[in-house]
Amino acid sequence: RKTRLFSANRRIIAGMLVNLFSSICIVFINKWIYVHYGFPNMTLTLVHFVVTWLGLYICQRMDIFAPKSLPIRKIVWLALSFCGFVAFTNLSLQNNSIGTYQLAKAMTTPVIILIQTTYYKKTFSTKIKLTLVPITFGVILNSYYDVRFNVLGTVFATLGVLVTSLYQVWVGAKQHELQVNSMQLLYYQAPLSSAFLLCIIPLFEPLTGDGGIFGPWSLPALVTVLFSGVVAFLVNLSIYWIIGNTSAVTYNMFGHFKFCITLTGGYLLFHDPLSLNQALGILCTLAGILSYTHFKLVEQEEGKSRLAQRP
């Protein structure tokens, strides 16, 4: 029994390590692609979708999961929000410093709570609601004092947060409604999102010449883009693995650790300037995120003990 527990823990740790390296890698690789190669944003998103679908196809051939037939009309909006979520977060990364990009993502939690309270009539305790104050204040403080603050970057970051929040709420709702796990859902969603992007790309990005998908890209640029696709697939797969084998709260806790490493890496690798006020904003947001997770854990434990006490 001890051996089984040890091997299960070893698998969870392995999954977390894969997620840690792939999640941090994807931010830096994408930023590198934008800064050094100027690769078109939506096309990079499309590469990620296609590689993710190919990866899932290989997984189902290896019997890692069984695909489930889903009606396309039920996942059209989910596929569209998936396009928006990846495209806008990539545009935010392209137009902002890594610090601002990471902190803007922290606003997803308050927006999800707002959507669930307004449209799904879900209730949250006062403690949970109060943790949103330092999170929001910290993000505003950091953005205001960011030397590279720009209106376009802020617009993309805001749209990214709104669409990501919608996507995360819908993923949970659709998994419940269609009785599928996230791999089965992604297996249908990725090709549908790719089809949507294929229709949109020619309207926003050049197809040939400099900066076009069929332009004269160097071999290192193409290898880096393909590598970022593989890393994006590993991110998606490891998220599913961690949540499936532990819980969403564990994944969030783990996310705070990655948040700190990514911020530090941004300042070291891309020499993003950091003022004292920005540092205070980051600490303020981090304090809010940690207290949110703490209260969430306490509430979950209380819920479990109440269930256990029932006759």
UniProtKB/TrEMBL annotation:
Pfam families: TPT. The chain crosses the membrane at residues 12-33, 39-59, 75-93, 99-116, 128-145, 151-173, 185-204, 219-243, 250-270, 276-295. It is a multi-pass membrane protein. Residues 21-292 form the Sugar phosphate transporter domain. Putative transporter. Belongs to the TPT transporter family. SLC35E subfamily. This is Sugar phosphate transporter domain-containing protein. It comes from Amphiprion ocellaris (Clown anemonefish). The lineage of its organism: Eukaryota, Metazoa, Chordata, Craniata, Vertebrata.
